[in-house]
Amino acid sequence: MFYQPKDGHGLPHNPFNAIVTPRPIGWISSRGQDGVDNLAPYSFFNATAYVPPQVMFSSTGAKDDRPGTKDSVTNIRETGVFCVNIVEYAMRDAMNASSATIPADQSEFDHAGLNRVECETIACARVDGVPAALECEMVDIVQLRGAANFLVLGEVTGVYMRDDCLKDGMFDVTSFQPLTRLGYRDYSVITDLFTLARPDD
To answer: From what superkingdom does this record's organism come (predicted)?
Structure first.
């Protein structure tokens, strides 16, 4: 089949997210000017550059108590920093719990029963026990087409890696099994790897 999004797809559910898969999950922690720590998973997330290291995530939709956006974007606008926590399979339920819509003056850390650790380079908390975390300074927030769609760009200022995930000097993703987002309500987990040499290596 072929469809133009402006005309609708005619299917029971939108296939867009199922086509663009798998997507890494950026578990974004931020802190508002009021000191409340926010935590939310975003599957529109990825790395964008090596030097300096940079990442992006996109927030779509809005909350009733956040005019035109969500807690993460509001907090990052206020403070200019955020942290990307990497989600392992073992933390899937806590990650899902943190996606609940709760009032802006309450913390998803508490709602999901998660401990927090202060970041080293920014005034923000990260999730205690995650395999890795990227501390970021905001570079820009870009409004995308559509209502309440925002692209957040950040430069990585600090990198945390859990010691047991380092094997022979390499960050071993099979040691913690990263969670990935698929379409609909589906997720997957990375357990197996294979290597391809570049033609010009």
So the answer is: Bacteria
Q: How many Å apart are CA 37 and CA 108, to the nearest integer?
A: 7
User: Which H or E element spans position 110?
Assistant: helix 108-111
Count of structural domains, the chain:
1
Q: What percent of the chain has pLDDT over 90?
A: 98
Q: Note the pLDDT of residue 201.
A: 81
Q: Looking at the domain assignment, is residue 88 inside a domain?
A: yes
Range of the domain at 176: 22-189
- Cα dist from 187 to 28, 31, 41, 54, 195, whole Å: 18, 27, 13, 25, 23
Residue with tokens 């709760």: 102
CB-based contacts of 23: which residues, under 8 Å, 6+ apart?
A: 17, 43, 44, 45, 46, 180, 181, 182
Q: Do 136 and 84 contact (CB within 8 A), yes or no?
A: yes
Confidence bin at 59 (pLDDT 50/70/90): very high
Q: Indicate if the pLDDT at residue 68 is higher than 90.
A: yes
Q: Is 109 domain-assigned?
A: yes
Q: Any idea what the CATH number is for the domain that residue 111 is in?
A: 2.30.110.10
Q: What percentage of the chain reaches a pLDDT higher than 70?
A: 100
In the prediction, which pLDDT does 53 show? 98
Asked whether residue 41 is domain-assigned, the answer is yes
